[in-house]
Amino acid sequence: MGLNRRTLSPTAAMLATFAIILSACGGGATPAPSISTPGASGGEASASAVAAASLAPCGTVNIAVNPWVGYEADAAVVGYLLQQKLGCTVVKKNIDEQTSWQGFPTGEVDVILENWGHEDLAAKYITADKVAQDLGSNGNEGVIGWYVPKFFVDANPDILTAKTDPTILNKYAAQFKTSESGDKGQILDGDPSFVTNDQGMINGFGLNYKVVYSGSEAASNKAIQAAVDAQKPILVYYYTPNWFSSKVDLVHIEFPAWTPGCDKVATNIKCDYPPYHLNKVVSTKFATSGSPAFTFIQKFKWTNDDQNAVAADITSNGMSDDDAAKKWVDANPSVWQAWMP
After folding, report:
1. Same-domain status, 175 and 261
2. Please, which residues have CB within 8 angstroms of residue 33's CB and are 6 or more apart in sequence?
3. Which is deepest, 86, 96, 225, 237, by most CB within 10 Å?
4. Across-strand partners of 177?
């Protein structure tokens, strides 16, 4: 996802420089943060802003932004409201999921707005090290799985029997072959940093397939669109909520249902992905800071449709993050006002 850049005031420029220096001192290849300051989007006076004046100073909020547009939509709306209604300085850091968790003990990250599982990271940073806290649901319900275009299912309905007989996929391996998968069928994954059990499922179900990474959500969507336009078979790793679902008609190929422990051995998995009740995670330092932003993020909760609407405006409609956020905020006051501290 691209950073939301704008012309900065001298104060904001100084803050931006300071944030970048801090990031560099932290080590690693963390991308330069995007800074938003109060009023940068033409600040609007409101009852909420007046009420915010009676709260403790908000300070700076460091939001991890993971590389898919749905998460960018989360950060767009939360960042916009923190800035406009609570007077916060918002720093968005475009980093992957694992790196986001590593930012909790260093102070580089205050909040993850959309966490997909990561029980191992939760065990380390929340349970063992106590440098992070689970802040509860963000309202989004996540699904990860294997998908094919509807036209393929219409022509080959028995592929849906994978829920009871996963090896049915081998019948169609030749149709999903590509130059990158060689003599095997291809399952097209996205960004290598995304949560994936695909290789373990291939091993566990005995499937004649190879995982090939597109490299990003955008690259996967481009490949899906090209296949649908040409009416060519494609098998993809896909997830919802996802704004792209309004552009193409995909069908989830279900496998035997997930049960606790069925994916414990990552190299040999004989079940589908679990359901994901997406949650927020914050640093313990941020949780105990007294910032009203903590209470706001604790209350933040919206639907898959909310997220998809903002994500579609950012992508299909070419809107900036702030413009897409403002459009949603203006249309949904009863939703976001419930998040105010």
Report:
1. yes
2. 3, 16, 19, 20, 23, 62, 91, 92, 93
3. 86
4. 185
